[in-house]
Amino acid sequence: MESDDDDEEVLLQYILYQNRKRKLTHIWIHDLLRQREECGEFHRLVKELESHDDKFYEYFRMTKDQFDDLYDLVKGDLTKQETRFRKPIGARERLAICLRQVFKLRLGSKICPK
């Protein structure tokens, strides 16, 4: 009978461990964000823009060469360390997000001046 009790105890411990593990993953990374590398703007649109110089310029207000030069200057500051919990947003993607937000802010201030 002790063996059955031990087996039940081990099974219960395993179930509790799996539940805690699942909750931690759920807390750290939302399901929508897990698909970022397949469906996200940077990984789809920006990669497509790289093959169209004129559209790339319209989107970022700089050429691909200028973007690459700027990336080389700031990549050390934008690179984050990967942890076992989640993969960080890459430095190139961070730069793209930053430039796009700056452009939106500048455009917004021209449309709606204070």
Series of H and E elements: HHHHHHH
Distance between the termini: 79 Å
- State Rg: 23 Å
What is the mean pLDDT? 77
* Unreliable sequence segments: none
Share of residues in helices: over 70%
Taking the sheet with the most strands, its summary is: none
Shape: elongated
Put simply, the count of helices is 7
Total strand segments: 0
Strand residue percentage: under 5%
Oligomer status: single chain
Care to give the gist of this entry?
By secondary structure, the chain is mostly helical. The chain has seven helices and no strands.
Structure commentary:
There is one protein chain. The protein is 77% helix and 0% strand. The model has no long low-confidence stretch (mean pLDDT 77). By secondary structure, the chain is mainly α. It has helices at 2-28, 31-34, 36-39, 41-49, 53-60, 64-78, 91-111. The protein has 7 helices and no strands.
Chain-wise SSE layout:
Elements: H1 2-28, H2 31-34, H3 36-39, H4 41-49, H5 53-60, H6 64-78, H7 91-111
Defining key terms:
114 residues, mainly alpha, 77% helix, elongated
